[in-house]
Amino acid sequence: MTTGPVELFYTDQGAGEPVLLVHGLGCDSHDWLFQHDAFAARHRVIAPDLRGHGRSSAPESGYRPQELAADLAALLDTLGTGPVIAIGHSLGGNVASALAVARPDLVRAVVAADPAYGTDPATTAVLADLAEVMGTDEGNEIAATAFAALEPDAHAWLRTWHSRRILGMAPQVLAQAFRHIYFGEGQFGVRPGSDEFLTARDCPVLAIHRSPALAAWERTLTRNPASRSVAWPGSGHWLHQERPEAFTDLVLDWISKLPG
């Protein structure tokens, strides 16, 4: 599908209430293979590759979460889906949230799996150092090492899979997308920008964090009474892949109980 300067690859399978699966930074829609069939048994499942990722095109700019969300809004408008359950991991959780804020008509609910928001301002110096090296010749290798540290107890093949995709990304795409999560106008990866932006989500939100502290923090931001925020301490960043059955069961059960 072509939307302005970007051509998005996506799959569209299953029937029922639509679900939009949004992967994280340096990943692609393959990340949802652990959930796809179970979701498609009950729902219409739309799984795109974000711009600059996977099989989608990689323009020179447009990697703010809000811009990535606009790409997805154009896709959903073209497909005529109506409101979707937007499920996002990491950066994808930010994109799903940005879509819910900008286009509430397109989002019935958000599921955010270890999203890339709520970062303590004290850690921004480390993030700035990492952002500085991204886009250089060795930036992808440094990023792959840093990402592997987010899942120390995961299967080795998972860490290898994630690292190889980061190594294969266009350096300027990785650098821009990473920087826009935490820095620049409109960022909501770092608090208090996170608080200000996320309170604008009116729809139900299911947030699944590794950190109990972040799960407790997110409970203060959700305005809809159907929202939940849970913690899975001990999980790695790709918790939907490390604990696929538990993740799938939790999400499908929560969706099934959403008020009509």
Short summary:
By secondary structure, the chain is an alpha/beta fold. It has eleven helices and nine strands. The strands form two sheets. A seven-stranded mixed β-sheet has the order 3-5-4-6-7-8-9, sandwiched between helices. A two-stranded antiparallel sheet has the order 1-2.
Question: Characteristics of this structure?
Answer:
260 residues, alpha/beta, seven-stranded mixed sheet, two-stranded antiparallel sheet, 42% helix, 15% strand, globular
If you had to describe this structure to a student in words, what would you say it looks like?
- This protein is α/β, with parallel strands linked by helices and 260 residues long.
- It contains 11 helices and 9 strands.
- Strand 1 (2-3) and strand 2 (6-7) form a beta hairpin.
- Helix 2 (65-79) packs across helix 3 (91-102), helix 4 (124-133) packs antiparallel against helix 7 (171-182) and helix 5 (139-148) packs antiparallel against helix 6 (156-167).
- The chain is globular, with a radius of gyration of 17 Å.
- The model has no long low-confidence stretch (mean pLDDT 95).
